[in-house]
């Protein structure tokens, strides 16, 4: 006789299935690392008041005068906090002494009860005063931009070197990317204006393929230079955006972030924000001195074209694809890591055959997080000017103190705040502008594809 044994199956009740779903959701999304209160070295800031004042002045901030006034008040506030701490300690010491005395001999209770009540009230009052002073100190520290590197120029970019220099740079209106790309059906601005408004666009046909080619090329080079890949979210909590240095309005009071009407969320202006957020409240192991991540995302800029500058075509748009390089580095290594980022960017630009210049950017062009920044500007003959295509910044511990990101020193086992750096590998629309305007041939009406992109363009050499 053949005995067929059916496998035992456990049929779960609706309640059990609901509990399983709730547990799975908790483990995957709800067990978050909270963004804690930023931690500042107030003692170090007080000892560098003059350097911080110079950094604020050099940045030419709209609210610079008010911020310097807050900064100058910091030493006295810090002394006041210490004095209040001492008073609180004295009150607590006396209070404990009385409580011991009463415990040893309850006959003293009536005599000491009044003083005990006064001490409790004094403790509450002093604590409130201390909290107020510390909150004021914290808000001042939170509002300070980063210090500025000693060799950062003040008001004008300093040219470091050139890439594929030309004997002469001549503007050529025939090479305007807007007209070329519309005529060749690579982009559709009219439909995008109907659907989304000004400064949006559809990339179509070989225009869309060119974007994919640029992303594939940039990410391949990034991997070859030790970067791991990541596709981060393009929406982040406002507190994370703020901690990264992108406040609702920037250091010159210009709006830079799209905030969602419901919920405390915003669209990321760069993958830098969500990449930095990956290590909130974390302790990193940096055996090689640096951790490198390459993120591909859509980026959103609220101010694009709002002031009427570069509103034509793809140069300044509200939404675009960007390949971002992000690094967490040991403080002793961050200077070299910035140079490594810059060298990779220069290699990408050089291989694409673009003529460009590398600039050490001035203090008045630095965002709040940046200690030092390099830009690369490519020649764009249709625009008749050089235009920024990449940026690389060392933010030292500005972001990590706000994100709670530390590293562990293998020698001592102690932790300290890590340095963060970011750089553009590929801001797609800007590079497309440079490629189209430089490699368009008016005689044939064709655009030559840079050699490194050909394998990603279905082997097309021209479009």
UniProtKB/TrEMBL annotation:
ATP binds at residues 301-303, 317-320, 388-391. Its EC number is 6.1.1.11. Residues 176-450 form the Aminoacyl-transfer RNA synthetases class-II family profile domain. Keywords: Aminoacyl-tRNA synthetase, ATP-binding, Ligase, Nucleotide-binding. L-serine binds at residues 270, 301, 324, 422. It holds the Pfam family tRNA-synt_2b. The record marks 424 as: Important for serine binding. SUPFAM superfamilies: Class II aaRS and biotin synthetases, tRNA-binding arm. GO terms for biological process: mitochondrial seryl-tRNA aminoacylation. Transmembrane segments: none annotated. One of its GO terms (molecular function) is ATP binding. The keyword Acyltransferase does not apply. It comes from the Eukaryota. GO terms for cellular component: mitochondrion. This is serine--tRNA ligase. It comes from Lachancea dasiensis. The lineage of its organism: Eukaryota, Fungi, Dikarya, Ascomycota, Saccharomycotina.
């Amino acid at each position: 006789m053949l005995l067929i044994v059916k496998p035992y199956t456990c049929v779960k009740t609706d309640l059990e299935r609901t509990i399983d779903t709730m547990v799975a959701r908790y483990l995957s999304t709800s067990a978050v690392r909270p963004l804690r209160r930023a931690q500042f070295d107030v003692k170090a800031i007080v000892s560098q008041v003059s350097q911080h004042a110079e950094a604020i002045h050099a940045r030419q901030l709209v609210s610079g005068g008010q911020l310097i006034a807050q900064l100058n008040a910091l030493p006295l506030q810090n002394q006041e906090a210490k004095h209040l701490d001492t008073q609180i300690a004295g009150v607590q010491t006396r209070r404990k002494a009385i409580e011991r005395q009463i415990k040893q001999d309850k006959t003293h209770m009536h005599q000491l009860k009044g003083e005990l009540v006064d001490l409790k009230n004094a403790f509450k009052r002093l604590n409130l005063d201390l909290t107020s002073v510390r909150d004021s100190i914290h808000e001042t520290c939170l509002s300070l931009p980063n210090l500025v590197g000693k060799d950062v120029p003040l008001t004008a970019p300093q040219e470091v070197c050139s890439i594929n220099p030309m004997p002469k740079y001549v503007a050529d209106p025939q090479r305007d990317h807007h007209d070329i790309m519309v005529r060749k059906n690579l982009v559709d601005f009219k439909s995008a204006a109907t659907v989304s408004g000004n400064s949006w666009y559809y990339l179509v046909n070989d225009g869309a393929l060119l974007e994919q080619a640029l992303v594939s090329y940039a990410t391949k080079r990034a991997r070859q230079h030790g970067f791991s890949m990541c596709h981060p979210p393009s929406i982040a909590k406002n507190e994370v955006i703020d901690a990264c240095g992108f406040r609702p309005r920037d250091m010159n009071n210009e709006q830079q972030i799209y905030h969602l009407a419901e919920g405390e969320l915003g669209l990321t202006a760069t993958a830098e924000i969500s990449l930095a957020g990956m290590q909130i409240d974390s302790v990193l192991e940096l055996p090689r001195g640096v951790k490198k991540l390459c993120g591909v995302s859509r980026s959103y800029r609220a101010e694009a074209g709002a002031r009427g500058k570069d509103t034509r075509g793809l140069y300044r748009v509200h939404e675009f694809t960007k390949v971002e390089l992000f690094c967490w580095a040991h403080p002793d290594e961050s200077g070299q890591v910035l140079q490594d980022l810059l060298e990779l960017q220069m290699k990408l630009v050089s291989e694409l055959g673009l003529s460009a210049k590398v600039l050490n950017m001035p203090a008045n062009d630095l965002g709040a997080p940046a200690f030092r920044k390099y830009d690369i500007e490519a020649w764009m003959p249709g625009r008749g000017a050089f235009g920024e295509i990449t940026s690389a910044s060392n933010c030292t511990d500005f972001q990590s103190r706000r994100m709670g990101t530390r590293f562990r020193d293998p020698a001592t086992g102690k932790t300290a705040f890590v340095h963060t750096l970011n750089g553009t590998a590929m801001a797609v629309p800007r590079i497309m502008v440079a490629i189209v305007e430089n490699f368009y041939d008016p005689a044939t009406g064709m655009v030559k594809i840079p050699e490194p992109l050909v394998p990603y363009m279905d082997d097309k050499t021209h479009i």
